[in-house]
Amino acid sequence: MSIRDNIARINNLKEDAALRSGRKAGDVLLIAVTKLHSAEEINEAIDAGITDIGENKVQEILDKYDRVKPVRWHLIGHLQTNKVKYIIDKVDLIHSVDSMKLAQEIEKRAGNADKTMDILVQVNSAEEESKFGVGVCEAEALIADIKENCPHINIKGLMCIAPLEEDPENARPFFRAVKEIFDRHKDFTTLSMGMSNDFEVAIEEGSTAIRVGTAIFGNRDYRSEEK
Ligand SMILES: *Cc1c(COP(=O)(O)O)cnc(C)c1O
Prior knowledge:
Elements: H1 3-20, E1 29-33, H2 39-47, E2 52-55, H3 58-64, E3 72-75, H4 84-87, E4 93-97, H5 100-112, E5 117-122, H6 136-149, E6 153-160, H7 172-183, E7 190-193, H8 199-204, E8 209-212, H9 214-217
Parallel strand pairs: 1-2, 1-8, 2-3, 3-4, 4-5, 5-6, 6-7
């Protein structure tokens, strides 16, 4: 299957899931997760209609930025405060804000650049120790703190990475818990939930943005990270 075929297939599944949740295909954004894939592959995806791409490492964004056709960039992985300065003028949405320390650094750099940075607060609703994100109970306090103290940050919504489950049905309660927080904020527009293995369940639970890598590009070659 080509990248173009994979994207067409995912768009069909995305539309069906959106209809099941009483929405339209256009209500759910497909973000192509391009980590460990080349600029050539990314451009192929853009030619096939992809408008938004997600990377989880700052260095990979910097390496590929000038070689990729115009597209919206999403930082979806953990962001260290000392790297905010490199991406503040490059990414359109940071999905992974999970501490006030990180928010304050984004606030400072966005202020210096005279811009407002769009972000999502990452919620670790399964409370997995191996994952970043704030717990469900801490989310409201962080949201309030950012709203009060960071005029150069615009919180667009929430992001969640569900535990990797053989059966995606098992991820449903974790998506639902994040949707509950999302629904309390009428100004939120973006609920980033769902990956290759669980995006249909995530859409059924209200996701507005799915982050799909493997189902578009095939398996990632992690050995190439050593280069
Ligand atoms: C890698 C990654 C994805 C995509 O995962 P696939 O299973 O390849 O679709 C989505 N979100 C985040 C945060 C990721 O790091």
